[in-house]
Amino acid sequence: MAGAMTIGAIFVQSTFAADVADQRLTVIQTSKPSVMPAVGVPLPASGAVRIIVNVDASGTLVDCMLLDYTNERYANAALDAVKDWQYKPATYRGTPIATRTVLDFAFQTTGQATSMTCLDMWDAYLKGIIPEKPIKCVVPMNELDAQPRPIHVVSPALAKGAGAQGGSSRVCVDFYIDETGKPRMPAVDVGENDSMADASLEAILQWRFSPPTSKGRAVTVRATQWFDFTKAVASTK
Predict the structure, then answer these.
(1) Do domains 5-136 and 141-228 have the same CATH topology?
(2) What is the pLDDT of residue 91?
(3) Which of 37, 47, 128, 153 sits a CA distance of 20 to 30 A from 81?
(4) Structural contact between residues 184 and 176, judged by C-beta atoms closer than 8 angstroms
(5) Whole-structure pTM over 0.70, yes or no?
(6) Can you tell me the distance from the alpha carbon of 236 to that of 58, in angstroms, rounded to the nearest whole number?
(7) Are residues 49 and 75 in contact, defined by beta-carbon separation less than 8 angstroms?
């Protein structure tokens, strides 16, 4: 079962700079998601998808990734939609900034029409609104078979004279390690030294890890990495 999809409200939650941004990231809908039909495979009456997006200071979508979903067809429809949408970047002190943001979607199917509105996925499942238990694409570090091991490490390259300038000489990068061991969605807190933050983000994207697994299944995990610009790099957690 499939049909044109009408868009309801979209809940947007900034992962970083949520409390200090002058203006949060704004989603500008430019296309309606559509669920692809599958012969003999009807859509569930309801479903949910949670996606994290990385939008740069120009409003360009840099990356997007599934966090949780209840049905693969709903998940693919939501992913295709966010790739086509336009975004107005968040601002900090009047200046556009890159942000990492979580989008939560809930789908309801009636006849040939599918609607998508905001809903907390796990709360909906516990209340019986969504019959299928969400599939977690990102698992906690303590549920992994083994902690991801760095197999390729790159130190941040800081331009001469671009030091801490009286501030902190350490930067914490929050990121995800995907099923292949590749870092994705790196982010730092607003207010970090710009040159050190940029160097740290560029460095972590070049790292590679042993692919994370949970009960033998390839998964994605969230991690943090401290970079100390006065001594060696600390461990990943």
Answers:
(1) yes
(2) 87
(3) 128
(4) yes
(5) yes
(6) 30
(7) yes
Position 31 scores a pLDDT of 73
Residue 197 has pLDDT above 50, yes or no: yes
Domain ranges in the chain are 5-136, 141-228
Nearest to 77 by CA among 42, 111, 114, 52: 114
Residue of 21, 24, 16 whose CA lies nearest to 173: 16
Structure tokens, 159? 């331009």
Q: What does the block give as tokens for 192? A: 């970090």
Q: 5-136: what CATH class?
A: alpha beta
Q: Are 121 and 70 contacting, i.e. CB atoms less than 8 angstroms apart? A: yes
Amino acid type, 199: A
Say which CATH topology domain 141-228 has.
TolA/TonB C-terminal domain (3.30.2420)
Beta-carbon contacts of 231 under 8 Å, excluding residues fewer than 6 positions away, are none
Task: Give me the amino acid identity at 79.
Answer: L
* Secondary structure of residue 213 in the 3-state scheme: strand
pLDDT score of 133 more than 50: yes
Strand pairing report for 113-117 and 5-7:
parallel
